[in-house]
Design goal:
Radius of gyration of chain A: 20 Å
Shape of chain A: globular
Structural class of chain A: mainly alpha
Oligomer: heterodimer
Number of strands of chain A: 0
Distance between the termini of chain A: 53 Å
Number of helices of chain A: 13
Largest sheet of chain B: 6 strands, mixed
Strand order of the largest sheet of chain B: 6-7-8-3-9-10
Helix content of chain A: over 70%
Helix content of chain B: 25-40%
Strand content of chain A: under 5%
Radius of gyration of chain B: 18 Å
Distance between the termini of chain B: 31 Å
């Protein structure tokens, strides 16, 4: 589409560098850090599912954490039931996330702006509450621990090491992000941008706006569900605290930091948040929220204030 | 000529205020019809009721080509062949002019099974000559939000035409333009396809005259006069009732 931003050399170089670092990470860093990055990738995919409705359709969606939870618990219960094929778990989690989004989307698609944000957040919080109370399926507040490892596809060995899990999570995250990017760069992305920019014009042109938005919500739900499955693979653990209000807000923050209309930005934002929580806040216990706030301000400054300052033309002083 | 748009006993109230009171109107296929009247006469309400942005009416019936569209939403009416412009241009500001036209034509191509990227390319190729006809060749790849007001007016007209309407609703297309700009608009309006019926609300009488439109004069939600433009515009009663509020563009 002609609305697509042309790729800038710096961005491409940064993306290529990040790609090389992610691929070579198993040979460069320790297993603990590798597990953290695996988790960050799953959270990053969740952030991508938030960025789609937020950036392209103009619907800020912190409640994407709900289909993420549904996907995670689906994958966890499948694994505990003996279904150890990763792709099966992923597909089931994606379908469960999409089905959940299809259900809640019936209500969500009628809301806009702040109302949408609040209803979306409410869906997320209610889902976390349900997860706390439905102990038979979710393990209650204790969550589900010791979830067995997966094998990528039928006939392959179980992913027994952190490196193998990392490679699996990295590959599937890359595939899902690429697929999402492909859809958004197609005319489907342009239709969503149209809904975001001017619903009145879209309706006057004959577009069924709510149907488009509903499709986006369901698609984003599928991605969130798949992210939940990858989170289970990466950590082998899930509890209501992993899908609660804090996570919903942090992921929305990740999208805000990375830029709502950039999937790479959403991934980067998620990486920065996981990194800040686990590394930077380590030596400075209890100050993670402060650091995240500073990170948000820095990102906001870099994206809005600094470019505006560059555009300011100071009047020339008259020669005396 | 058969009537494309038929409005029968159309009434609309906002609380205790009666905006339209028993309007009857017919626009034939390919016809040009202008609605004039002082501010608050009910012109924009009438256009909104026809387009479906205001619905349902308090009473009355709206038919397009013999089909009752009174209860349909704007998108369905658009798919049945109603295109429109607004008092304030409604465009997709972060999309280019070409993309605006592509999206306008998206639901009207008649090939719904077509592969989306191929459809995009076909519509984009069709958009450029339309932009050239409107004098917007240089704006094709610029974002709509970066265009000047007059260019946005013309682009919105292009957007409405890109949906291949059978009935085109124009809500004050010359409003807010600089004194020279309506001349470009007039040129574009004169070149409108002859098979497209136009229902126009406009204060600029030169626009109405240029279209050689039939004129209906509204006052306080009622039709007070109707007939050919030269007859109505020359009528002393029309001048008494309306002209003091109109802006004449020569």
């Amino acid at each position: 589409m002609s609305t697509r931003c042309p790729g800038r050399p710096v961005r491409r170089l940064a993306a290529a560098t990040a790609g090389v670092l992610l691929v070579t990470a198993p040979w460069l860093i320790d297993d603990y850090t590798l597990t953290l990055i695996s988790r960050a990738l799953a959270v990053g995919l969740l952030a991508v599912s938030v960025a789609v409705p937020t950036g392209w359709a103009g619907l800020a969606s912190p409640g994407q954490v709900a289909p993420y939870a549904v996907g995670a618990y689906t994958a966890a219960n499948l694994a505990r039931a003996g279904v150890d094929v990763g792709l099966t778990q992923l597909a089931a989690a994606g379908l469960a996330g999409a089905a959940f989004a299809a259900l809640t989307g019936l209500v969500l698609v009628r809301a806009r702006d702040v109302t949408f944000l609040l209803v979306s957040l409410l869906v997320g919080v209610l889902t976390a509450t349900a997860a706390s109370n439905w102990a038979a399926l979710t393990g209650g507040t204790n969550g589900l621990a010791g979830i067995p490892p997966v094998r990528p596809v039928w006939g392959t060995p179980l992913l027994g090491s952190d490196r193998a899990v990392y490679g699996y999570v990295l590959l599937l995250t890359a595939v899902l992000v690429a697929a999402t990017m492909g859809v958004l760069r197609s005319p489907a992305g342009l239709l969503l941008i149209g809904c975001r920019d001017n619903e009145t014009r879209m309706r006057a042109d004959g577009h069924p706006v709510n149907r488009y938005l509903y499709t986006a919500i369901v698609g984003a739900g599928a991605v969130a569900g798949a992210a939940g499955a990858l989170s289970i693979t990466a950590t082998g653990y899930i509890s209501p605290a992993d899908v609660g209000f804090d996570v919903a807000v942090l992921v929305l923050l990740a999208v805000a930091i990375g830029g709502a209309t950039s999937l790479a930005g959403a991934l980067t934002g998620a990486g920065l948040i996981v990194g800040t929580q686990n590394w930077l806040a380590g030596p400075w216990q209890g100050h993670a929220p402060l650091l995240l706030g500073l990170l948000f301000i820095a990102a906001f400054y870099a994206r809005t204030v600094a470019p505006a300052l560059h555009r300011v033309r100071l009047p020339r002083r008259e020669a005396p | 000529m058969t009537a494309l748009l038929t409005i029968t006993d159309l009434t609309h109230t906002y609380g205790e205020l009666t905006a339209l009171d028993g309007i009857n109107l017919q626009v034939p296929e390919g016809g040009r019809h202008a609605i004039v009247g002082a501010n608050g006469a009910g012109k924009t309400t009438l256009l909104g009721l026809v387009a479906g942005t205001i619905r349902p009416p308090t009473a009355g019936r709206i038919e397009l080509d013999g089909h009752d569209i009174t209860q349909l939403d704007p998108a369905r009416r658009a798919r049945r062949g109603i295109g429109r412009t607004f008092q304030t241009p409604q465009l997709l500001d972060t999309a280019t002019a070409v993309d605006n036209l592509v999206l306008a034509g998206w639901r009207h191509t008649g090939r719904r099974a077509e592969w989306a990227p191929a459809r995009y390319r076909r519509l984009a190729a069709r958009a450029r000559p339309l932009l050239a006809d409107l004098g917007l060749t240089g704006c094709a790849d610029r974002l709509a939000g970066a265009l000047a007001h007059g260019q946005r007016r013309l682009l919105e007209l292009g957007v409405a035409l890109a949906s291949r309407p059978r009935l085109l609703l124009l809500d004050e297309p010359a409003a807010g333009l600089t004194p020279d700009a309506p001349k470009h608009l007039l040129a574009a309006l004169r070149c409108l396809p002859t098979d497209v019926a136009v229902l126009l609300v406009e204060h600029h009488l030169s626009v109405i005259a240029a279209l050689d439109a039939a004129v209906t004069v509204l006052a306080d939600g009622r039709v007070v006069m109707s007939g050919p433009a030269e007859q109505v515009l020359a009528d002393p009663a029309f001048r008494t009732a309306y002209l003091h509020t109109a802006t004449v563009v020569t």
